[in-house]
Amino acid sequence: MAISTTDPLASVVALLKPEPSIAKLVNGAGRWRVERTNMASPFYCAMVEGTCLLTIRDCAPLVLETGDFVLVPEVLDFAMSSINPPPSGAPHLPLEIGPGMFSLGEQEAPTDVRCLVGHCSFASPDREMLVSLLPAVIHAPAHKRLIALVQMIQEETQSDRAARDMVLGRLLELLLVEALRSAESTMAEPGLLRGLGDPQLALALRQIHADLGASLSVQGLAAAAGMSRSTFFDRFRGEVGSTPMEYVAAWRMAVAKDMLVRGNIAMAELARRVGYGSVSSFSMAFSRHVGTPPGAFAARRQAV
Is 49 left (phi over 0), alpha (psi -120 to 50) or beta? Predict the structure, then answer.
């Protein structure tokens, strides 16, 4: 998908290129616990019924209740369990009870937890930078729209209908946008959501995303935000987590990588679209930022 939107949040999600992986219904009964390690993938969970505990490495335990939704853009180690988990070391293998359906816990106990769990992947060649703009954990309590989207993803995953992969891709994009829109920007760590939560910084961020080929400077972005240069610089760094021109450079390189991978564009046109006056100046900047010339990067990625 070409990145042409002027909306910063939508353009980041589009550039991430979410792709479907796993979607399943998990039932819990009695005391249960499941752990995953070294995953390095996006994870989401929608609570259809009941209450459980989600523990993510380096984060405080999170109680999930009926109607809650949680998204972790990059989860490494995590555990889900009943509120009163079994003793450490107790067996906790899930039992597959149907296509995409799993049961956890005591088989003789009544089911008291039902949740829709999914994993996806981000196909962007600059996923690490893009993920760094997002909150580490997004928790949306009692969010019917997100629950409905996850249910649609679950149904589509289990189907064999025409254009299934395309539909799943679009649903995942919608899920990410809706989850990010639901996040409390004032509670999130520095990043894109915090920046967009500031009305003045949002004006500057929209200007950056509206036309990367324009001549962008701290002074010009400060003027767009209606702030002095020094105040804008400090607030941008504090809320977004990088200086304005670091953000501009990183976004330019992310878009350039995407265009290089998709191909079918002359290098001079690509350089112009991401704000460089010549192919040589773009190539130097790209090589410095990425560690390899743009042509070699494109050839390597397209060969994968």
Answer: beta
